[in-house]
Amino acid sequence: MAFLERWHLVALGLILVGVSLRLMLLKQHWPWTDSDEGIFGLMARHIAYQGERPTFMYGSFYMGPLQAYLGAAFFHLFGSSLLALRLGLVMLFALFLVALYLLTRTLYTPGLSLLTLALLSLGSPYMLTYQLRSYGGYLEILLCGTLALLIATRLALSTGPTLSGRRLLLRCGGYLAWGIVVGLSLWSDMLFLPLIGFSGFLIIFFCWRDLIRLLPVICMLGGLALGMWPLLAYNLHAPPGLDTLSAVAVQQQGPVPLHYTPALVWQQIKATIQLSLPTISGNPFCPVSEVPVLRDPTSAPTLACRLAHLGWGTGYLLLFLAALGLAGWDLWCLGRRSRLEGKADQQADLVRASARLLLLLAAAITLVLFIHSLAPLKWPSLHGRYLIIFWVALPAILWPLWQGMRATWSFLPRLRQSGRTLCLALLLLLLLFYGIGTAQAFGETSTAQLYYQQDMAFVHRLEELGVTHFYSDYWTCYKVAFLSQERLTCGVVNQQLQPGYIRYWPYYWATHADHHAAYVLPRGDYDAALQTLMAQPNRHYRLTLYGDYFIVQPVG
C-alpha cells in the first residue's frame, strides 16, 4: 500500500510541476492573445455580467462554450482579465493529467503512467499554446474522451455474471457518468467521436449482461441526454443547414468539395507527415506558422528544417504503427489463449488489450479523416491541433519503447543490451526535446509581454482619440474589444469595407448605427480601402497613423 502511495505522490508532484509551469507562463502573458480567444473572453463577460447563456461559440453551431463558462466563474472571483479567463484552462488540463494517469495505470504500468505525466507536464510551445490559449473544445474533449475510455474500461474490468442490488446501483452510477462525459464531449466538439464510439463498443462487448437490464440503459441514455442537452435543445429547432451536423460537415470538407486525385492524396499525406504530426506530437525544432497575423514564430524553410520535420514525422508515424501492430498482436494472442485455456482466467487481460487497441484505432481513424480533409492542404501546421487525440494515445504509442526497454529480447539475445539501450535512449531523448520546447516557451515570454503592452497601448490610444465604435479586420476587432473590457466595440469588415467574418452581430449593428464610428485598418492589406474611403465626396475624415494601423475618424 505504501508503495502504491509513493506512485501517487510522484504523480501528484509531476502534475503540480506542470500546473506551476503553466501558471508562470500565464503570469507573463504567454501565449499572446488574438481575436479567437477574444471571442471566448467576450462570451465569458456576457455570461458573468449580462446573464447570457450561449449554447455554442459565437458564430458557430458545433462548439460548446464550456471554457467561457469557466472563465465567467473566475471573472466573479478575480475580475475580468486575460489571466482569469485562462485559469479554467489550467484546471481542465490538470484534470486531464489525472484522468490520463489513471487510464495509463489501468491499461499499462505505473512506470509508464509517470513517464507520460512527465512528458505532458512539459511540451513544445505549440502544445502549450493549445493548453493555455482559450480556443474552445480542445481541453474539454481531452478530459471527457479520456474519462469516457477510463470509465468504460473500469466497467468492463468489474463486470460479472451475477449482480447484487447494491452492486447494480454502483454500476448504474458508472453508466450515468459515462453518458454525461460523452454528452459533454459531443457538445464541446466532435473531434473525439471515434474514441467515444470505441469506448461505447467496449461497454457493449464486455458488459452486455448489464445492458440486457433496463436500469443501466436508462442511466446511460439519461446521462448522455443530460451532458449534451444544450446541443440537443438547439438542434431540435435548428433551421436546415444551420444544424450541428451540417456545420461539422462543412468544417471537415470545406466550402468546395475536393476532387481527389493520386497527386492530391499524396500532397495530403506528405503535409500530414512533414508538418501536422511533428507539430502536434511536440517537435520543438523549426516551428512553422502559416498565419503571420498570429505573430507565432516561424523558421526559414531550410533543408535542415525540412529534414527535421520529415524525420520526426516519419519516426513518430512508424512508432505509432508499431504500437498499433503490437496491440493487435497482443489481443490476437490473448484471444487465442482464452479459447484454449478458458475465457474467465483471461477476462481482465482481454479487456485491457481491447482498450489499448481501440485507443490506437481511434487515433488511426482520426488521422485518416484528417488526411482526407482540407486541413493538411491549408495550414497543415496550424491545423495539427485536430490530431490532439494523439495526446491521449501517447502512453499507447510509447508502449513499444517501454516494452523494449524492459524486455529480455529472448528472440534476439545478441541484441538484448543494445535494443534495451536504444529504447531507453529514445525515451530520454523525447523527454529532453519536450524540456527544450518548454524552455523555448519561457524564452518567448519577453516577446509575449511586449505584445501585451503594445495591445494595451493601442487600446489606450483609441480611447484617447475618442473612439467607441470602429470597423476593422477580424484579428483586430474582438481582441481589442475584450482587452478594452468592451469600452471599445467593433464591426468586422473585409478589404472592400463590407461585412466580413462576423462572429458577434450585436457589435456590428451597434457600430453600423453609430455615424461617428471610426475605421481602424491594418496598413498594407487595407491600403486600397483607405483610398476609397478618403475619396468619398460627401464625407470628411481625420487620418491618424499608429503603428501598423490607419485610424480614420469622421469629422463633423
From TrEMBL:
Single GO MF descriptor: pentosyltransferase activity
InterPro entries hit by this protein: LipidA_mod_glycosyltrf_83
Membrane topology recorded in Swiss-Prot or TrEMBL: Multi-pass membrane protein
GO cellular component: plasma membrane
Annotated GO biological process: lipopolysaccharide biosynthetic process
Top-rank taxon, per record: Bacteria
Principal localisation: membrane
Localization of this protein: Cell membrane
Residue stretches spanning the membrane: 6-25, 55-77, 83-104, 111-129, 135-156, 191-208, 215-236, 316-334, 355-374, 386-402, 422-443
Keyword entries, A-Z: Cell membrane, Glycosyltransferase, Membrane, Transferase, Transmembrane, Transmembrane helix
Name of this protein: Glycosyltransferase RgtA/B/C/D-like domain-containing protein
Source species: Thermogemmatispora tikiterensis
Upper taxonomic lineage: Bacteria, Bacillati, Chloroflexota, Ktedonobacteria, Thermogemmatisporales
